[in-house]
Amino acid sequence: MRKTVIAFLIFLASVAAGAPAQAATPSIDYGKRVSSLMKEYSINSDFQCVNLGSLGLAIVKRAIRKSGDKDALELLDLMKDVKQVTIASFADCDPDVRSRFESRLSKVLTKDFLLVEAKDAGEKVQIFAIPDDDGENISDLIINAPRSGALICVRGKVNVQDMATFLESKSK
Prior knowledge:
Elements: H1 2-18, H2 30-41, E1 48-52, H3 54-67, H4 70-78, E2 81-89, H5 95-108, E3 114-120, E4 123-131, E5 137-145, E6 150-159, H6 160-170
Antiparallel strand pairs: 1-2, 2-6, 3-4, 4-5, 5-6
């Protein structure tokens, strides 16, 4: 399944690079809305949320450079224009809190910006992104795995062609 998803992402990235951006763009920063919602719910017990701002990302990037790990360095190259990463885990939180969070999240994560949706053994994973005007970059990459209770929001820009090249090299 992983290779199928990666192959589909490579195909989608190559198509997106040549396609015009969608006419409708969010009036409010898409990624900011998602990360704000995650932070809002983090006050609830068992709703875990980690936010890496520019300073946190700078520390992580420096550690990656020092590690010398080739794959990590390639990934770091993709992240050069990423400003913030917010990760939430809500699998173990109160069912009522989880239900309210998922309801509000579904109002933000509209199908207009759905990049890919994959299912494996009943687990649905959705990836949302906003293409820029020329289709070369995507911003506010959001990965949602509702059944697992996991959500990742990457704010900033990622070059579509660089992402496709990276994913293609990892799928072999």
